[in-house]
Design goal:
Layout: H1 8-16, H2 23-37, H3 46-52, H4 59-71
Length: about 80
């Protein structure tokens, strides 16, 4: 939300519009999610979601992770 480099926003928009992401864009999203999940979040799924971030290498894995995060009440986008 407060990212100021201008790098993340176009990637998030591209993802939300259903456009394919390049490998480096998935890596950027993974880094963002890692930072987001480092916050003081609570819930039964938080630890598992934190662990799974490192496994995100594809858009399908990103989508699955974000779906599970939303199910847990976590909306990083």
């Amino acid at each position: 939300m407060h990212e100021t480099s201008g790098v993340l926003r176009p990637i998030v928009l591209k993802y939300l519009e259903g456009q394919p992401l390049e490998v480096d864009e998935v890596v950027t999203m993974r880094a963002y999610l890692r930072q987001w999940m480092a916050a003081d979040l609570r819930g039964s799924s938080v630890a598992e979601l934190r662990e799974r971030i490192e496994e995100i290498c594809t858009v399908a894995e990103l989508r699955s992770w974000l779906d599970d995060a939303l199910d847990a009440g976590i909306d990083p986008l």
